[in-house]
């Protein structure tokens, strides 16, 4: 009998991670060997358990899913990484593929599709959500990190620093630093102009 596909899940939203684990556990040919809440933990656990597939949230505290995937691919070459995201920013797709990610899809994906993608990447294939792929073709590379894009997205409606910090679960000081970096990268006058530019480019 063929060994089940060993899957590692990483998502800092407990409800979503638990739901993904339950869905994949219903598949006869898969077993969830670990669940983690951060990118750092995912990298550490992957090195210990050597999963076949790692399903990683794009946005997590600490290192993001793309960086976690890059480190996992380096330390566990046989592990195929899939990025799932609630914000399908096309600018990150190329970064993810460059990092060695083999699957990229939104969290709105059905359980059936996710299971199929897990099987596909485990077999050596690749999968990119068609709508994200189409958007990526029309968008240039994003110079923003996922966290910079987060705070800019929260700033787009004119929110204050404290409001943005609360939404992003960051301190006000850290939020200012991310916003300042994003404004500089985009050559904007202020965070509102930076947010408008990023949205126009498809980066948030």
Task: Please give a structural write-up.
By secondary structure, the chain is an alpha/beta fold. It is 52% helix and 15% strand. It contains 10 helices and 6 strands. Strands 2-1-3-4-5-6 form a 6-stranded parallel beta sheet, sandwiched between helices. The longest helix is centred in the last third of the chain and has 15 residues. The mean pLDDT is 89.
Short description:
With 204 residues, the protein is an alpha/beta fold.
Descriptive key words:
10 helices; alpha/beta; Arc Repressor Mutant, subunit A; Rossmann fold
SSE blueprint:
Elements (H helix, E strand, L loop, with lengths): L4 E6 L3 H12 L4 E7 L2 H11 L3 E5 L7 H11 L4 E6 L5 H8 L4 E4 L4 H12 L4 E2 L1 H9 L7 H10 L5 H8 L3 H15 L4 H11 L3
Parallel strand pairs: 1-2, 1-3, 3-4, 4-5, 5-6
CATH fold label of the largest domain: Rossmann fold
Classified by CATH, the class of the largest domain is: Alpha Beta
Q: What's the architecture of the largest domain, going by CATH?
A: 3-Layer(aba) Sandwich
Shape: globular
| Poorly predicted residue ranges | none
Helix content: 40-55%
Number of individual domains: 2
Radius of gyration: 17 Å
Sheet of most strands: 6 strands, parallel
Identify the CATH homologous superfamily of the largest domain.
Response regulator
Topology pattern, helix = H, strand = E: EHEHEHEHEHEHHHHH
**Continuous helix count:** 10
**Binned strand content:** 5-15%
How many individual β-strands? Answer: 6
- The neighbouring-strand order within the major sheet is 2-1-3-4-5-6
């Amino acid at each position: 009998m063929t060994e089940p596909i060993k899957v590692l899940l990483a998502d800092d939203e407990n409800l979503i991670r638990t739901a993904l684990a339950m869905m994949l556990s219903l598949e006869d040919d898969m077993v969830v060997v670990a669940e983690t809440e951060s990118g750092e933990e995912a990298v550490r656990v992957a090195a210990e358990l050597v999963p076949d597939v790692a399903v990683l949230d794009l946005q997590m505290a600490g290192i993001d899913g793309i960086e976690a995937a890059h480190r996992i691919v380096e330390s566990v070459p046989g592990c195929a990484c899939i990025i799932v995201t609630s914000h399908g920013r096309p600018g990150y797709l190329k970064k993810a593929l460059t990092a060695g990610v083999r699957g990229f899809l939104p969290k709105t994906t059905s359980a059936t599709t996710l299971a199929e993608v897990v099987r596909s990447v485990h077999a050596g294939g690749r999968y990119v959500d068609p709508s994200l792929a189409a958007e990526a073709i029309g968008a240039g590379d994003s110079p923003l990190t996922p966290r910079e894009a987060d705070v800019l997205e929260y700033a787009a409606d004119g929110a204050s620093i404290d409001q943005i910090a609360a939404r992003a679960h960051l301190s006000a000081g850290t939020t200012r630093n991310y916003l300042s970096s994003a404004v500089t990268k985009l050559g904007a006058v202020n965070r509102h102009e930076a947010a408008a530019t990023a949205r126009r480019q498809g980066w948030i």
